[in-house]
């Protein structure tokens, strides 16, 4: 998020413009273009009437979840257990590797 004077020191001026970069983490079956449109519509609905809102999508990818029952995950889990002597506990977390969903689609395999 940034806007107005961004140099060193204080500035007692109300900024005429403000900017923000938003990154959204999607789950499977969410379309990034649709989610972007929903975000834009919502943001426009809550912005003050005097504000000009411009949403510029840059890129997007489909959501993906690595299955914990596939051979790749099981191999990694066993390697972790062999190395550290403890069974790993799976946890879900967001990340941005948009090509992973495309790999699944084209290779017809979970990676």
From TrEMBL:
Coiled coil: none annotated. This is Peptidase dimerization domain-containing protein. It comes from Oceanospirillum sediminis. Pfam families: M20_dimer. Keywords: Hydrolase, Metal-binding, Protease. InterPro entries: Cyt/Met_Dipeptidase (IPR051458), Peptidase_M20_dimer (IPR011650). GO terms for biological process: proteolysis. Residues 1-49 form the Peptidase M20 dimerisation domain. One of its GO terms (molecular function) is peptidase activity.
